[in-house]
Here is the input.
Amino acid sequence: MDLRSIISAPKESIKTGEWRRGEIPRVQWPSKRAKAKAYKYGPLYQWRIVTFACSGHDCRVRLLLNEDKQIFRASLGVVVSGETISICDYEWHASEPGWHCHARCDEFRHLSASFNRFGGQRIPKANSHHRRVEFRFKRDVLSAANAFNCAVDIFGLDKGGGIV
Here is the structure.
């Protein structure tokens, strides 16, 4: 199964989680290899973990938002043997132009959990034209109120069993 398959497939047992601040519990985004700092964010950051099943796989979406600095990241991961393999990061931040994603399009059984972006590609490329260059989701400035809906659209979370 690959990124496109997960996005287009029906989702089951969706748990949307709540917006929180501070450290992300390791059990929410499992990894034996990640260092502790990968789970710690400053007080201006909010995070949220969405879990779901897709074609028998345990999948997660990690949302990270800092409204003051205009930083947003939605990461799609698949848990395999206790390790979360990140297969796509959809993001906005001032250090790179426009909305973009870092995608690992191979079948995730061939991907290593030890490299989050290794072997992936940035879409669109950094030096390419970006159509969406504002910190917005459907005409509204991105905020905690609509960032979840942005992730629902990006990763097809509304396909299948419904959102709890």
